[in-house]
Amino acid sequence: MLVGNLRTDDITAYTGDSVLLPCSCTDPHAKPESFIWQKYNTRRQTWDMITSESEQYSNRVQMGTAHSPGNLSLLISHLTEEDEGDYRCYMNQWNYKDIRLAIK
């Protein structure tokens, strides 16, 4: 289970800064089999997967931490206006957390 499951958190950050989008398991020692981060694409109306290989996030994202497997948080650095939007930490159909990120 995720902390804040099925709830939307609102976060505001500033261009050029870094932001941590929080996502963690209710059991900090849990080792989820898999999880992904997605961002809602308003043009295509689809959820796009976020990876460090994707062009928009190249060398700007870090997911989770090795020393705390239940911490699935997403760190985005060097924020741009394009980073604004809806994000989802997704484990499965019934277990996800939404975050709305505003950039100023």
From TrEMBL:
PANTHER family: BUTYROPHILIN SUBFAMILY 2 MEMBER A2-LIKE-RELATED, T-LYMPHOCYTE ACTIVATION ANTIGEN. Keywords: Cell membrane, Disulfide bond, Glycoprotein, Immunoglobulin domain, Membrane, Receptor, Signal, Transmembrane, Transmembrane helix. It comes from the Eukaryota. It holds the Pfam family V-set. InterPro entries: Ig-like_dom (IPR007110), Ig-like_dom_sf (IPR036179), Ig-like_fold (IPR013783), Ig_sub (IPR003599), Ig_V-set (IPR013106), T-cell_Activation_Regulation (IPR051713). This is Ig-like domain-containing protein. Gene3D superfamilies: Immunoglobulins. Its main location: membrane. It is found in: Cell membrane. GO terms for biological process: cell surface receptor signaling pathway; cellular response to lipopolysaccharide; immune response; negative regulation of T cell proliferation; positive regulation of T cell proliferation; T cell costimulation. GO terms for cellular component: external side of plasma membrane. The lineage of its organism: Eukaryota, Metazoa, Chordata, Craniata, Vertebrata. It is a single-pass type I membrane protein. SUPFAM superfamilies: Immunoglobulin.
